[in-house]
Amino acid sequence: MKKNLGVLPAVYPMPVLMVAAYDENEKVNVMNAAWGQICDEDKIILFIGEGKRTWLNIKASKAFTVALADEAHMDVADFFGIASGNKMEDKFERTGYHAVPSDKVHAPIIEEFPLVMECELLEFLHTEHVDGIVGRIVNVKVEEAVLNEKGKVDPEKLHALMFDQFQNGYYVTGAKVGKAWNAGAAWMKK
Fold it and tell me: In whole angstroms, what is the distance from residue 139 CA to residue 42 CA?
């Protein structure tokens, strides 16, 4: 029997996304954003509220990067979510992490995270019910260590973090349990 839990954000898993952009002085800012998703083959949407440091930087620079946080860098990924760039001037610097300029968009790439999407700003969405940033993915860079023998990203090597909104936990991607567009194929014949 199911129990009523009331209203809560009950989508699991949520990605742990590291969103990075330059400010007007080319200073790096990074935030942890769990509320974001792919919204087309070459587009991503981030649900970031107006006024956050990252939102302001993306508005000014018209570009950003989105990295997938991984288990090896969970502590810093969590810190990027706890600390506000509006309140902590040395947020990025105190981690000792390294940023290099993207050669595709005007945004920083955080070297420690294994996979990064380089994005150009398409639009800001602002309605009565939602604020969002839509970007076009112009390129994806990935560490070779997380690729399989066919040159594709291997989730079992990536160890991407997933956010659990039920208990505020982090988990990592696990073993493959099936093949998409195949596991349910038998039902097509019934």
Answer: 9
